[in-house]
Each structure stands twice: as C-alpha cells, then as structure tokens.
Amino acid sequence: MLHKIKGTSVCPPRPDLMQILTGLVGGILGISAIAWLTQLAEVPLLMAPFGATCVLLFAAPNAPLAQPRNVIGGHCIAALVGIVIFQLAGSGPLAMAIAVGVAIALMQVCRAVHPPAGANPLVIMLAGIHEYHFLLTPVLAGSVILVLVALVINNVGAGKRWPNYWF
Prior knowledge:
Layout: E1 4-5, E2 8-9, H1 17-41, H2 49-59, H3 68-89, H4 93-109, H5 120-127, H6 136-153
Antiparallel strand pairs: 1-2
Protein name: HPP family protein
Pfam families: TM_HPP
Organism: Pseudomonas neustonica
C-alpha cells in the first residue's frame, strides 16, 4: 500500500526482515537446486529468466504472477511460442517482436501471465534453439523445481500459506 504525504505518492514500506530473508534464502536455494541438478543429471535445467522468476516467487509470493499456474504455464507457453516462431520465421528483429507479443497474448488468454517468461522467446531465438525438448528441459523441469522450492520456503513460519492457488 502506498503512503500519502500531502497528496503525493511515496515508496511502499520496506518488507519486514522475514520477507527479506525469504527472498535471500529462496533465491539462493532455488537457483542452487537447479544448478546442482543440472550438474548431477548433466541436463540443462537453468536459464536466465529463472532469476527473475525467483524475484516473484520469493519477494512477492502472494502476487498472482507468482503462483504455480503462472510460473509453470507462463514459461511453457512463452517457450513454445518462441520455438514455433523461430521455426516459422527465423530470429530476425520482427520475428523476435512477434514472438514476445504472441507469448504475452497467449499467457493472458490462458490466465498464466508470468513476466519473466516474456524473455523466453528471446532466449530461444538468440540461442538458436529450435528443438521441442527444450520445453521439457530446462523450461518445464526448471520451473517445477522452482515452484517446489517455493512451496517449502514460502510456507516456513506461522500462518504462512503458499500458493494462493494451483490451477
């Protein structure tokens, strides 16, 4: 909630220490789990947008954009769009723009908006990824791992309940 001072808006209050520690520990454990499992399984499970996903999962866990449906669904939808558009139109500037726009629209239609997933088509096109197995690893597996870590971290402490909804 914004505080008002003589008719002007100011920054929202700083989160309490527990929420700050949740963000710190959640980010460390979420990315560590994915990175460790990547090394253990010798399968790529980590991608850059997962860092931004951690911000939502651990710093704003009650936001609709940080719910499992949004995290997993948003990443899968946006990655699928990126692969399809890359296969159909390549990776030029217009194709990248169309892929991001289509990904946003489909996430909205599916009620699975997750802002970090908006980067997935760009990651896919810039890396030249055209194979559908990318949807399983790293996209699906990595996003599920983060949701599982969030399920533990975001429920530590009395009266905490995450997620607000699953699907």
